[in-house]
Amino acid sequence: MRVVIQRVKSSQVTVNGEIVGKIGRGLNLLVGIANTDTDAEIDWMVRKCLELRLFPDEEGDDRWQKSVQEIGGDLLVVSQFTLYVDTLRSKDTQIL
């Protein structure tokens, strides 16, 4: 499993000119999952993304004090299978 995490003030996904997902302050997650990823690995990554301290505290003194959960932030999760592309064309790994 591979995840690119981006802290955002707002984010949206548009398909054919139509907004299909939109958030305010929070995390934009580009996620690639392969058939070799286990439920345990996915659960670990979910917890990691939710607990990462990427946001400032209320006073703004420390840039990395709060998690997305602690600020009541949003998540926009976007499937991004290209993160998991095996350029060697291995027969053992399939993209989900």
UniProtKB/TrEMBL annotation:
Gene Ontology terms for molecular function: D-tyrosyl-tRNA(Tyr) deacylase activity
Residues spanning the membrane: none
GO cellular component terms attached to this protein's record: cytoplasm
Chain segments annotated as coiled-coil in the UniProt record: none
InterPro entries: Daa-tRNA_deacyls_DTD, DTD-like_sf
Family designation: Belongs to the DTD family.
Designated name of the protein: D-tyrosyl-tRNA(Tyr) deacylase
Species name: Nostoc commune NIES-4072
